[in-house]
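Would you mind giving me a polypeptide sequence along with per-residue structure tokens?
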Amino acid sequence: MGLKRRQFLFLGALGSLELPLLWQFLRDGSGSQVLAPVDLAGAASSIQASASPGGTPQLRFVAVADTGTGDRAQYQVADAMADYHRTHPFATVILAGDNIYNNGEIGKVTAVFEEPYKPLLQKDVRFFACLGNHDIRTDNGEPQVRYPGFNMKGRYYTFRQGPVQFFTLDTNGNADWPNQLTWLEQELKRSDAPWKVVYGHHPIYSSGLYGVNQAFVRIFTPLFERYGVQLYINGHDHDYERTQVIRGTTYLVCGAGAGQRPVGHSSWTACSADRLSFAALEVYPDRLEISGIGTDYQVFDRGTVPLRSIS
């Protein structure tokens, strides 16, 4: 099937270096391109880490990924999320993929989603999911796309809540990349939201097992910089990591929703931890505050992402 002219021009603009990396990623499949973290000394600006100065946030939401096991560890993180909700009410959870282990079987959704998060679902908290590499093993993830509890409008979609517009991606190797990339640029360009948050399952910057994805760096970071994306959220690496601001964007790994792996520390890392956890985010007119919260219900990381305007 031929590409439409706009898709062709967009992909052509990526250049001769970027396209082979993208096609290699697509050919090898999701998660198979493992690249070590790169040294980006001087490329990352400093990010403020501080306690909240107070005030009422315009929006509060949480993010978690790699959750769907139904085992004790998932329940521990879910319980910590419910505890946080009691003192800091939120209505939205970003569920960044691998929602049902091991093979995305929708028949397990009660055991690995509805039961662990029952206290939140009973409070009308809505989960907005994307597809992970485990999710597409059964019918290419289509049963999950159709499942009402995941609130997916498609394999990639966008929605807005208050001052934040969210852009949900399918980052798997078999995704509809030409159409999805064209869609993403169009939606970012037309958005007038002060805050733009993109999320998908696979990392762009990571000090964990899968490392930095060079193809994604070359494809996504120019778009993020051009259209003012302040935050990218992902899972896949089973750890917590918050980067410094890299070319205007903070990268947040929150894949320790049901398991954990060792994670390193790169030159651009603000905080990394190999502990069961989720991320809580509060949006203010001039900043977005990120808190890493563990299964002891304690905040182990706090950072602030500044609002930046696009000229």
Remarks:
- Helices lie at 5-13, 15-28, 72-87, 109-114, 118-121, 142-146, 177-190, 214-227.
